[in-house]
Structures are given as C-alpha cells and as structure tokens.
Amino acid sequence: MNKILLSLMFVMALVSCKQSDLLEITAPNGKLKIVFNNDDNQLKYNLYEGNKNIILNSEISLFQEVNVEVTNVAIKEVNDTWNPVWGQFSEIKNHYNELEVSLKYQGTPATLFARVYNKGIAFRFKTENNSTANNPVLFMEYNMPETSGVYSPAGEGQPYGPIAISKLGDPKENGKKNKIKMPLVIEHPSNKYLSLLESDLISAPGFDVINFTLNKETNTLVSKNNFNADGSQITTPWRIILVEDKVGDLLTNTIPLNVAEPNKLDDTSWIKPGKTLWDWRVHGFTAKDGFTYGIDNESYFRFIDFAAKNDIEYFLIDDAWYTKVEPGKMTMSNKLDLEKVADYAKEKGVELILYYDRRQGNYGDEALFPYYQSLGMKGIKYGFMGTNVPFTRNAIKMSAKSNLLIDFHDGPVPFTGVTRTYPNAITKEFCHAQQDSRRAFTPKTFIRMALINALQGPLDMNNGIFDISSVNAGEREKGPKKLNSLQTTVVAEAARTLIIFSGLVCIPDAPEAYTEKQDLFEFIKEMPVGKWDETKILHAKMDAYISTARRQGDEWFIGSVHNNGGTLDIAFDFLDDNKNYKITYYEDTKETNSKTNPEAYKIRTETIKKGAIVKATMVAGGGHCMWVRPE
After folding, report:
1. Going along 83-136, which residue ranges are E strands?
2. What pTM does this model have?
3. What CATH topology corresponds to 13-258?
C-alpha cells in the first residue's frame, strides 16, 4: 500500500553543537521555521512563519527538571508520496525537513526528532533505554499570546470555546470538568489557525491520553504525560502543531497521517469502507403498513432488503442481540435468530457489523474477535471501552487478526493517524453522535464538531435522518427525550453524511424514510465512502458554515450546511477544462424551515463548465448538496 513513488532523500549533515548554539530547521517552502535554544540546559523551541511569531520560548523535554546536553545534530530532507488503503486522498505527499537532535539527560541518551512541513511541525522523542532513575515525562509548553482563542472537544457536548488562554483555568469558561483536550483549535492573533494534536499512539507503549493544563504563573498552555517505563526503549507519539490560513484547511492537512507508522497489514483486500444501515434509532417506529421495528428477524430482513436494493454495503446490529457473555461465546436473545439473519444477509450480498458492550462480559478477551469472525461478521462496534490506550491498541490489532473492521463507540481514545497503520480501524465516535443520550445537537454544535472533533480522524456521527417529523414527534424509542428538539433540514442531513469524513457512514433512519424520499436519497446512494481521490474544504467558519467537496474519479460530491442561513459562492475552478458537467442540486426551498417545515426540498439539474460560480442558498440550520459528473 505504501509504495514509494518519488524519493529524494537523505541530505545528511552531521555537525557538532555547543550548548549555546541555536539550532534551527525550516520548511521546504522556506516559511515555517523552528529555532531551538538550550540556555541553562533546558531545551526550548520557537515557531515562526516568516516574520510572525507563532510560539515562543517553550520548553520541550522528556525528563522534566533534568539538565539536558545537546551532543549532535543531523539534518535530513524527505520528499516522497504514498497511497493510503482508504482516506480523503488516494495519494499523499510527504515532504519535510527534519532535525535529529542527540541529547543527554544526566547520562540518559535520547533523540528528539523535529520535522517541519509547509503547513505544520511535529516532534517525537526516542530513547534506547531508560537505565537511570530518571522518570520519563513528556512535557511540552505552547507559549502563545494570552488572547489566543482556544476550542476543545467536550465529549458528547458542544465543544468549548473560544476561550482566551488566560481564562482556561476558569470553570465558568469551559464547564465544571474543566478538561481541555486534543485536538485543540487555536485562533492565533497572527490571523493563523493552529491545531494541537498527537499522532501514532500505536508506536507508544506505556503512554496514556492527555489533557492540557494552564501554567497560571505564565499563562502558558502545557501538556504533560508520564510514561509507565520499565527500563526499556521509549518512543513517544508525535506531537503536532498544524498551521493554516483557513480553519477548514486543518481538516485536509495530512501531517497526522504522514507521521504515523505505515500500514502493518499484509493483506488489506478485506477492508472495504462503505455505508451502513443501523437498527438502534428505528426501534419502536411504525411504518405506514403497520409494521413496528424492533429486535427481531423481520425488522432485520427489511433493513437487509433495502441495503441490497440500494447498494449499501453493511447493516449494523446494535445492542441486546445477546443475553449472556462468556469468553468466546454468547447466549443469543430469543428475540431473533442471528444465524438466520446472517444467512439472509449473505444471500442478499450485505455484510453485517455487530455491537459489543464490554460492560456485559470479559472484554479484551482474545477469544472475542475470532468468535465474531466465526459468526460471519465483517466488523465489530465496540462500546464502553473507555479511554485506555493500551487496551484500545490491542483491540485494533486483535480485530485485524480476525479480519474485522472496528468501530469504537462511547468516548474512545483519539487514535489519530491509526487508519494508516491499521486501516481496519474504520471509524470512532469521538463526538456527539446523532441523538446520543437521547438528545439532539444543534446546527451550531454540528459545525463545531465538524471543525474540531473531526481533526483527530474519521467520525461515526450517524447523520442522515430523513423522517425528521417522526423523530421530533417522539415516534422512536431511542429518539430525543425532548420533543421537537431536532433542528435540521432533510437536505442538511444528506449534506452532513458527506461533510463528516468516515470509513463507515452510518445512516440511522428506517428504510421507509429513505424510500419515501428516494430522489433525495440518490445523493447518499451515489456518494462513495472512504476511498476518495481528493478532498477540499471550500468554505468554513466556526459556528457559521462549512462546505466540503470530495472527488472520486471524475465525479464530485459537495455538501454544505449553514447555521444562520445564507448563501455560499461555490467556485468550480477545480473542474477539468473543455468539459461539460451535469450537476444535480438537492436544495432547501423557500418554504423550508429547520424548526417547522424541515422536510421540504427541491431537486433540479443543469450543465456547467469550469469557472462557473454556483450560489448555494440555505435556510437557518439548512443544507445544500451537489452531485457533479461529466456529461
């Protein structure tokens, strides 16, 4: 998968370095620059873009409060490309300059790798061993202007922000829990957007999830991690700082993938991104023919029939299909015959994904994943695994051994970059998925999660509700407790399935809801999933709107949503010259209202060429979709 297409590598320069020397490395385009100094035997870094100060005089260390000596420096340039198994791009360029800094912490040797890309930087420490009594602590400061605005994920709630760095210690600003965690988005006074991330946790045993804290004396943002070191080699995750002119471009920045370990799987032919139907949000819904959905064979046959008819690859069966858990064995619920359902799905060419709740059994058991494989499943949706890094890492590896996709549910570890290393890690719920905790999120919350939570990787958000009126009327057992709290439009729901990137797009409504709006469902049906050739964020503004374009082959799919309502100019300067394109519009109407008339929509077609500008008009909380292909 990781075939090297271009390699201009290893311009090496090994030089001696005195403690007082300044060490620096510049991006390939000459703009971003890291400058280190080791005054008073404490290594600190500075980040500049041209004459702009981004981060100044900030400590970075592996053994905190231990004097460090710089012994040698090596400089390297790498410029190559690689091909992911699936993702937002079919080919990714990996071009950076790297400074390899040899260090000694009171006799303990360590190496700091500092990479500078055109749109961000990355740091990693490595040691050969930890033979001294020093306790490894990955410590990193981010000394930015106090007025910098910080946004942070907030579990299943609306992300925090913008909070001035000087206010981060105030619980009134970001809730009682007061936890600021990766991925952060920073609105920097230099008119730059930064994201603070870490990638490649797969290579960092002994490491756990971090939160950010504030050094109140200096008003400096700090991250700090202890390692469960046993005297063996230490490899830290990559600490990343993305730097972009536009907030939307953070989503298509490929540094988190570039620094991750290459694919570890010899055979990836069984890994197929796709769409899935899902039973959980449909329970209790009564169709017009009088049938009521539940946990039973007939309900699942209906899902499978619709999936087969509409080229939907998967059907996801959620909780309550079993009553008792033993290692490598589960007692099936008498509500359904899972073997019969599996045989029916196989006959129809639909793959099954099955939920597992670790609270009900021996989670982490190596027998779990082979058992799921023996049931004929293609994936596991793993619920309530917690934020345990070693357990999550092992679950990803064990599921791969059994040729199972894995979808982490319920507040998982943000394993950024893991889709490169283990592409069976198909998605995760690092967000408020639709109707979680039986409450609805707002259009504003969706946009925040699309620009913040999605930075850590693919999201399982369960967008695509078409029977909005039924959900708001309380006609679903798992719908929001508060009636009429789902504020959206049916076109916005279609657009959200494209905007949120995932290897598994889970659409949560009943088959009848999609059949009744089959002309609108066309956008979701025709939309590829996961294996995109190119992705662009055309417009993005925090709390206001986002517009995303994705290409597979010579077809483009574009989805936009708007919190307050308005028009976005979509400039088609990315189409091929001298071609006519057919474009299908899926739009809100003048009568559409996200609160009172959410299911009104219109569909029209026309022909356009490169250079055309389309005005995508949306109501408050509404959306706009386009399917563009050559005539």
Report:
1. 92-105, 108-117, 120-127
2. 0.94
3. Beta-galactosidase; Chain A, domain 5 (2.70.98)
